[in-house]
Amino acid sequence: MYVVIAGGGKVGANVARSLMRLGHEITLIEQRRDRFERLEEEFEHQVQRGDATELFVLERAGIARPPDILLALTGDDEDNMVICQLAKERYSVPKVIARVNDPRNQAHFDLLGISPTICATSSIMALVEHEVPEHDLIHLLELRKENLEIVEVQIDRDSPSAGKRVEGLKLPEGARLISVMRDGRSEIAVGSTTLEAGDQVLAILEPGKEDELRRVLLRR
Amino acid sequence: MKALIIGCGRVGSTIALQLHKEGWDVTVIDENEDALSRLGENWPGSFVVGHGMDTDLLRGAGIEDADAVVVSTDGDNTNIVIGQVAQKRFGIQCVVARILDPARADFYAARGLRTVCPTKTAIDTLTEAVRACEIPKVSA
């Protein structure tokens, strides 16, 4: 496939390198002269110098072919948003992925319909919560386009769901249990699965159903 | 009438002073506190220090009651994003954004953002000025 990558910092260069190793055709766009010169030694004609928010720079990089996917990986959120809007709406690039540098800007990406996005800070925070749970319901994954999220809940001895079969739980509409992890082994949750204290349960649900789910599983 | 001006450089500050003179209730936002000095010694309007990408700051500056929003920071892409946030999140009808790059100004104008491109104005004006020159014919 053909991939256009905007931003040749650590993230962009490593992604470019990885895609090339997999045999894909890429064009990397980098604005800064010092970075560009270093990248040129490695990527030769596959890196171009310029501001990827300028239409002629994108066009020179082959945006009009169009590429199968565009990756907006610069260190500037506004630039990434504009690059994605141009790619999708002007050049009909079928898929874009945007890097979010400041998690506070996530709402702006969502507002402009730019999805999927990837934010290192948010991913790290989700991992921290997963590794050292502070809350009884951990957000593992947000599926923005689907308007669903995957959460993890730890069942303990006092939980009303402990000892109950999944089919006997009054789960809120718009929520389903996916799997149960017990003693290091994971099983798909079916109606006959019985929950036990110590189980780590994965659930998929519509955002906003967290409180109802928490009430049914944990009564909190 | 309330106006919110984001970016208090040469352009933003002058618009703020002008609108104030015409009776508007003007609030100005800039990242840099020193930008206040561009509004003269006794700026009677409001001045908020912060970044226009910050939704809470925009709310605090009264964007929800604004009749007009002018986005005039020194970054084209910042102006494009803030302009769309004002339009789409806060439903402001009158949003004017300064965009120096004519190509991006056209693209976003076609998508319903009121863009003003000083570069294009300069090109047109200068071209017109050249056309208006009376070049003396060299006699043989």
Highlighted features:
heterodimer; A: 220 residues; alpha/beta; 6-stranded parallel beta sheet; 11 strands; B: alpha/beta; 19% strand
What is this structure, in a nutshell?
The complex is a heterodimer of chains A (220) and B (140). Chain A has 220 residues and is an alpha/beta fold. Chain A is built from 7 helices and 11 strands.
Q: How is this fold's topology laid out?
A:
The complex is a heterodimer of chains A (220) and B (140).
Chain A: E1 2-6, H1 10-21, E2 25-30, H2 33-43, E3 47-49, H3 55-60, E4 69-72, H4 77-90, E5 96-99, H5 106-111, E6 117-118, H6 120-131, E7 137-143, E8 148-154, E9 175-182, E10 185-188, E11 200-205, H7 210-218
Parallel strand pairs in A: 1-2, 1-4, 2-3, 4-5, 5-6
Antiparallel strand pairs in A: 7-8, 8-11, 9-10, 9-11
Chain B: E1 2-6, H1 10-21, E2 25-30, E3 46-49, H2 55-60, E4 68-71, H3 76-89, E5 94-98, H4 102-110, E6 114-116, H5 118-132
Parallel strand pairs in B: 1-2, 1-4, 2-3, 4-5, 5-6
